[in-house]
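Model it.
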Amino acid sequence: MQVSIESSTGLERQLKIGVPADKIEQEVTARLEKATKTVSIKGFRKGKVPLRVVKQHYGKGVRQEVVGEIVNSSFYDAINQEDLRPVGQPRIDGLKDKEGQDLEYMAIFEVYPEVKLADISKVKLSRPVSDVTDADMETMIEVLRNQQATFDVSDKPSVDGDQLNIDFVGTQKKEEFAGGSAEGQDLVLGSNSMIPGFEDGLVGLSAGDETVLKLKFPKDYHSEELKGKAVQFAVKVNSVSSKQMPELNDEFFKLYGVEEGGEAKFREDVKGNMERELRNAIRTKVKNRVMNQLFDLNKVELPAALVANEITQLKQQMVQQFGGGQQIDLSMLPDDMFKEKAERRAALGVIVSELVKVEGLTPDEEQVRARVDEIASTYEQPREVVDYYYSKPELLSSVEAVVLEDQVTELVLSKAKVKEEALPYEDAVKPDPEPGSEA
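Modeled.
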């Protein structure tokens, strides 16, 4: 096999690959000879068809099959010979395939960049430290009670927290605007689901009351036509309902999976869930802060194919999250919308991969099992979940990848300048702003 690098620009490589004609012919002949024993052709007994006849009928198709396989295998032989790490599949150009002549083609592809890692002792970051306090517990229990609250129709004037059923019509310069009207809409005062001033203007009203609210849309409102614009809403209150909070009793506890043990067991479960959420949130914060530092310290030339792959994954994630189960053509989503985040993810993938290689890291089996156990603990049958993960290589591989990132994080922390940052629970579980976004 002949291999030569015809071009090398940036991360793109063009390999000219030649395969001797006799290798192709030998494989084609071997397959045709094998076929003579099995094919059925009119006028010949099965197993007695002459090679030349089989070649006439099937030679072209067999040769295409052989050439395809040899192009694939010779490409991987070539990149191993030249010690290249391709990104994705190559583009095959200039394929020359004539019987009796050497097979020739050009393989065009990108390679992974060479990375010179920065000194990770230059990393500086803060590690959040937090606890679940009694006050945090009470706040969470109130959140859970609010989730199960009901509303009873009341004749009293509305107060913050009440649910109103309203009709409203919005106008801008006396003209109705799109999305500014509704009938029979439920609205909880204090939910901040409407523009500033709307809910405040309905406090103190009773069923049957009408009012006109003179408001302004925020300057950062998502609709260009309404940003900062003065508007009016004519509102009619159809009904006022007061919130009824559930009692802390066995019926309420069962809604959250507590069948026995009463309030003490309920509080124990709530605290356990909060502590697990806190651990996960802090772990994620620290990992993200480490990754942000690694990204800032290491400048990486990125293969376009790697970025394109990340863009596709981000599109798929968006469709899964917001698509409502609909089949959406990913090409309808503009690449530019995802490019910056995709480049960041691609760069971090390259940096982390290089760190793993340089440090000789492999997924720690105990950490993998601990992470699987942690996932399984949120299900009714944890043992079955653990067994399922260990029976599915692709699932276990995803856990191993996360653990490997954790190990990279711990490696960086062991050499970085780290200071502790005491945070209240509410702030500790809140994600950091994404890089490039405003806090």
